[in-house]
Amino acid sequence: MPNVIVCYKWVLDEQDISVNENTLELNLSRAKSKISDYDRNAIEAGARLVERFGGKLTALSYGTSDVKSSLKDTLSRGPEAVYWIGDATATKADAYVTANVLAAAIKQIGSFDIVICAEGSADQYSQQVGPRLAALLGAAAVTFANQLDWADGQLVAHRKLENSIEVLRTDAPVVASVLPEINEARIPALKQVLAAGKKPMTELKISDLQLDAAKLQPKNKVDKIKGAVFNRKNIIFKESNAAENVSKLLDCLKKESVV
Amino acid sequence: MNSLFTEEQLLLQAAAREFAEKELQPRAARIDQEAVFPEEAMKMLAELEMTGIPYPQEYGGGGADMISYALILEELAKQCEATALTLSSHTMAAAPILTFGAKEQITRFVPALNSLRKIGAFALTEAGAGSDAGGIVTSAVLDGDDYVINGTKIFITNGDKCDIVLLFARTDPASKGNKGLSAFIVEKKVSDFEVGKHEDKMGIRGSHTTELIFRNCRVPKENLLGKPGEGLKIALTTLVGGRIAIAAQAVGVAQACLDESINYAKERHQFGRPLASNQAIQWMIADMAKDVAAARLLTHHAAKLFDLGEPCGTQASIAKLFASEAAMNHAIKAVQIHGGYGYVRGTKVERLFRDVKVMEIFEGTSEVHRMIISGSLIK
After folding, report:
1. Which end of chain B is more exposed for a tag (fewer CB within 10 A), N or C?
2. ipTM for the complex?
3. Does B49 contact chain A (CB < 8 Å)?
């Protein structure tokens, strides 16, 4: 029966973020937070694993103090307990810092068989945290997983590659990063929501994780985040003959290498 | 964080919204056009433990409060009022059993209703009795260990699908008006009654509405709910929760009218600019938003009083009256904003327009609610 830890990120809901078309500045003032969509699949993958094979599912998140607002939402989706680190360092954390903090937290939580992450987060999508965690924890790394099973004390993972599926087995401990297509995340049932607040929620202080100051310094420095605006070409074909319009449209699409 | 609500209430609202957008929105047009009973959606709601939301968990209910129930119904109604109404009518059947039932009746019927193993219905209205329950002529006569029921109920929501009916009948033939009425828990498999005419309705077409015909229908006497003669009290007590539920659904429909109107007014261009740039449209949208907000607050106020166990009959009437009339008025405006597109089948506001009218009629007409409200003020 695997002891599973799932990591998730509390991100701004991209639907609430607007872009100023002139300056390309992002307006975040109306943005509410949510569990990163891909992490909902990661939590679901963990929940299904322990539902099918027994064991225990614990959730873990590193973010600013705002991450506290995510705890009941997370617990309504299957985990038995949640650990969270709410610290200002998270505002500038890159995959290096995030992995350092999560690895230290996992060591503090105790032993594990499987750590599940999403392949990337909904905001930065660096795809690094899973493999970095594996390295820091001395665990096997499995990426691009679209199926996870537990058999004879080993993780059996299906990895979706370019043109094939690789099925592999690995001993615990292992860190698996999963693709969103691995499942459809459940909508929490009513009693799960009401029971969430009764499950254990533990705050870990970054000062208690015994991390060198250097490990909290991001390697990447983000200068600016700008919105991407889709510039329409506004070409209208006005020939009376429909076939001619279609053929002109095709020519344009070919020129743009769309078809 | 919206401080009016608890985190749990907001999470339940989010869960209902996700379910409604994912599962109801794509089904709603067909449910309406083909008058399909939303059986599939109801089963999914049962899996989400939302078929007995405000009832104790020890009887298989959700254990949530009335505010959560209102938030959930609003989300469902935004996408498919027929499903929301099917759920609230089903849910209402368990309320009188929990409030007035003997322990044995509660354990026998309520968990089955809450889990949707049985579908519930509430049968009060007759040809000569609707707003005035005192006009009930359906009779229940004790004969040995059974009551023998004779009469016809009309406009019964879930009538053809229900397994358990909360039936109101006259047990004292000498009585007139509101006295001498009693409530019964009638099980379809035990006391076979007939399903009569299916109503072909203007709106909420997926919610099935039928006659129920009782011809010498024998109901075991242990299925009498409460004491003989308590029928009216039982009905009126139950209707308060039902009215809050309808108010919440009216808020959902009104919000949907507003959402559709905003989207359309921004997309549709006339005279080289979006409809939304016209002040005439802006004012309609502002009026809609104002009333939706007021209706929602009135509904949540009534729900809060209900949760606190305080008298809330008048407040429930105020909420139901205001929300249903606001929803009707704004469905008219939403169709107006959509112009010709709002008048053709397949446009969401066309469906909302037809769905909403009944909200001013069932669970007490607007006129009855004005009587209740004024009656509580002018004594």
Report:
1. C
2. 0.92
3. yes
